[in-house]
Design a protein that fits this description.
The protein is built from ten helices and eight strands. The chain has an eight-stranded parallel beta sheet with strand order 1-2-3-4-5-6-7-8. The longest helix is centred in the last third of the chain and has 19 residues. The protein starts with a helix and ends in a 5-residue tail after the last helix.
Length: 336
Amino acid sequence: MDRKQWRAQVVETALEPDLPIIDAHHHVWVGEPFGHFELYDPEWLYADLQTSGHNVVKTLYVDSHSGYREDGPEALRVVGETEFADDIANEAVRRGGKSAGACATIVASADLMLGTAVGEVLDAHLATSPRFRGIRHMTAYVDEMPPLFPGAVGGMMLSSEFRKGFTELAARDLVFDSFLLAPQLPELTDLARQFPDTRIVLDHVGGPMVIGRYDGRLDEAFADWKRDMAELAKAPNVSVKLGGLNMGIAGVDALAREQPFSSEEMVQAQRDYLLTTIDLFGPARCMFESNFPVDMYGISYTVVWNGFKRLTAGFSPEERTQLFSGTAARVYRVDA
């Protein structure tokens, strides 16, 4: 059976269908750029919004390596992605209904290793769409594994050229999305302390991993991750996206099972990472994400949001508002 058939083994009705949600992190792929992951084109995104049963009022498009320009200056080719996402958003508004909030804000890409020259790229993104809010520069890297993304190397966030580029973000009120692996958390803490006026959003609860150096050492992996997340939480300019745990690295997914998690099973498997993060950073600095279509490989759109709702059933209404929409609206300047 293919992954769509596999996911279809678990079908749920959306819980609390009126609760407003801003999906703080998803991608759109018109092909399959990362091997085994599935197509997730605009039509699939619109369908998830229309049929999941959840009240997803806005979504945040994040760096998907889609729509890059095929000519022109190399550094500026990434601006094509903002054009691509803006077109999806305009079509969503035209369609209206539950599709209307798709790609309401855009986090694209820019190479911070360009140093101060990256300012031209950021300005080009800004000129392309009023929805542009910031960039993600892929830094996920550990010595014992092949690079997950081209150009990622150890210590990148500590380098002088990266930091020269990083200075260009605050001047334009732009957000930096950080995708790293847990052993790199101290690097991000140092970056956040050096640039307290730049809004930083840590993706996927800090990239906990139970592979590589932590293979067979699950308790140590969690303890090290928690220690470094606690230190990062002392930087008030850092917020965290809650999600991205259905993609394998953290070992709390259903990928190898005969059928996917139900929402109850998802909560049981992932609660320690999610609740620890909320405890460390507080609801006002945390936001839920689907991370589709990456997490789609292991769970459906309806079920993943049901899991987040079950996880927070005992939270106050004010806390849940922050987690499901308020934090994302504030950090990314989204009109919710």
